[in-house]
Write a structure and sequence with these properties.
50% helix; elongated; alpha+beta; 153 residues; 5 helices; single chain
Length: 153
């Protein structure tokens, strides 16, 4: 039977991940969890469609028993990349589809720097187009006129 293994985080609980399973769309599960009195909504970090997802969840939970917050709860003190790798290892070839939503802090920093670079390039292109509209000699004449007008005041 097909179903999903999901990894979710919650900004209200940094360092903890909820690792569980659902026979429905993980987004439906996320919304249900987010309406249970938690201060902030859960965030889906990873989902994998797998055959025999219920047994896979048990295997993952057994593997993560030493980082489990409390027995009977699906919360674990583990990083997202580690949880994804363990899920993949335990699943073997039973994953039919997977999607990673997680973005590491390093990737976020890199994306921010790239956006900043692109903005600089666009501004530089805009400036060059404006300069191209008016030849350098004309700009020099305008500067002389401005200086002359300011000195006459």
């Amino acid at each position: 039977m097909l179903g999903f293994i999901y990894i979710m985080s919650n900004p209200a609980h940094p360092g903890l991940l909820k690792i569980g399973q659902t026979g429905r769309d993980p987004e439906i599960r996320r919304k249900a969890l987010s309406s249970t009195g938690v201060p902030q909504e859960f965030v889906i970090e990873y989902q994998a469609l797998s055959s025999d997802y219920e047994e896979l969840e048990k295997k993952i939970h057994r593997k993560l028993s030493d980082v489990r917050l409390s027995k009977g709860k699906e919360f674990f003190k583990i990083s997202v990349p580690e949880a994804i790798n363990i899920t993949r290892d335990e699943a073997g070839n039973t994953i039919e589809y997977e999607k990673i939503f997680y973005t590491s802090p390093e990737e976020l920093k890199k994306l921010k720097e790239e956006r900043k670079k692109q903005l600089y390039i666009k501004e530089e292109e805009k400036r060059k187009k404006e300069e191209a509209k008016y030849p350098i000699n004309q700009r020099k004449e305008w500067i002389k006129l401005l200086k002359k007008n300011n000195s006459n005041k």
